[in-house]
Amino acid sequence: MPIKHGISSNTLKIIRRLHDAGYDAYVVGGAVRDLLLDIDPKDYDLSTNATPEQVKEVFGRKAMIIGRRFRLVHVRMGPELFEVSTFRREPTEEERKGRNEDSGLMVWRDNEFGTVEQDASRRDFTVNAIFYDPLRADHEVLDFVGGVADIENCVVRTIGDPRTRMLEDPVRMLRACKLVAQYDFKLEPKLRTAIIDEAHRLADSSSARLIEEFFKIAQKPHCASTLTCMRELRLLKFFLPVLDEAWDHPVGDECVKMLAARDSLLAAGEIYPSRATALSCLFLPLFCEYMDCEEGTCWRSFMGIDKELSRWLRKQMQPYNVPKHLIAKTRDALMILAKIVHGKENRRGRKQLQDSRARDTLLAYQTAFGKKLRPSEDFMEGEGDFSEQSEH
């Protein structure tokens, strides 16, 4: 399964310079998976047998070593920033000694350098453990774990025992769902069983890591299908409890339809990949229900709705600590949306129509339901704070 798709010139420059310095260097992970699927990668991760210090020596001021225990290098080439890691291996039993709470399962971000084959065995899924040297004349890839075959068969499979891999890092369960949603892959049966059985382990992950994964999902045009996969695998109640609780009710169906419509608009390039837009699409049906709106209508505005909506949004996103500025942008999008629907203008009147998050949310509603959101009959002009600050 050779790679025919071209890669960025800056990627080639980095690999060539490492080669010229006497090191091996490969494109690795999701970029190789996309290339094999004839998809243009959004970014490229690179891996090499050069240590972080040696990579820094090759690229000088263009490179910066980051991390404490797990050190890697950020290399800037033109406008692009590349992550360059050194081949790693599993630590030995002797090397594990002295670590508190090391059951043998915990993932440690070590600087135990190894070979390319050892590095492949440390990765999560076979489809993410393929290495590609674009300077090779035959354009073949290095595949030690059967990842190419799994891509051809559209299968998500772990490297090693699936239950062990999920216990090592429960966030991998979310990444499996993203592969299913983005590429229409299917889970290998043992992996599917392991995720369902160990779904509760997701609660052991830090809320900071989980909200980071949520934001990554929210900015991709596969959000609805990813969350649907999580629901099927019993992960959603540990990842986004508010949506899991609403799932089997009409309002839950409306939330998923809103997100699916936003996904289609995002994939078509008609809207911007804003986190606030994703949140406003998710929460529009829920807030309409909270405000006891009739079907297909938008709530009335009232004095103090800005504080009420902010409080409500923070509660819905529990247990996550969502940044205040993102709560504010989501709140403003929903409030301005109500103004647009009602056709009312305050002192900022025309600017409201230019708010991309409110406009994109309204467009997603019309796409999802084939009709316009109507104003509530008892609309009253509000005095809320309508921020025009852009997230872009």
In short:
The chain is an alpha/beta fold and 392 residues long. Helix content is 48%, strand content 10%. Strands 3-4-5-2-1-6-7 form a seven-stranded mixed beta sheet. A two-stranded parallel sheet has the order 8-9. A two-stranded parallel sheet has the order 10-11.
Describe this structure in words.
Helix 15 (275-290) packs across helix 19 (356-369). This protein has 19 helices and eleven strands. Helix content is 48%, strand content 10%. The protein starts with 8 loop residues before the first helix and ends in a 17-residue tail after the last strand. The protein has two domains: 1-153, Beta Polymerase, domain 2 (2-Layer Sandwich), CATH 3.30.460.10; 243-375, no CATH class. A hairpin with an 8-residue loop joins strand 6 and strand 7. The model is unreliable at 102-109 and 379-392 (pLDDT under 50). It is of the alpha/beta class and 392 residues long. It has a seven-stranded mixed β-sheet. The chain has a two-stranded parallel sheet with strand order 8-9. Strands 10-11 form a two-stranded parallel ribbon.
- In N-to-C order, the SSE pattern is HEHEHEEEHHEEHEHHEHHHHHHHEHHHHE
Q: Report, as a whole number of angstroms, the end-to-end distance.
A: 39 Å
Walk across the major sheet and give the strand order: 3-4-5-2-1-6-7
CATH topology of the largest domain: Beta Polymerase, domain 2
Q: Strand percentage, roughly?
A: 5-15%
Task: Please report the first level of CATH classification, the CATH class of the largest domain.
Answer: Alpha Beta
The CATH architecture of the largest domain is: 2-Layer Sandwich
Instruction: Report mean pLDDT, rounded to a whole number.
Output: 87
**Which overall shape is indicated by the principal axes computed on the Cα atoms?**
elongated
Uncertain regions: pLDDT < 50 for 5+ in a row? 102-109, 379-392
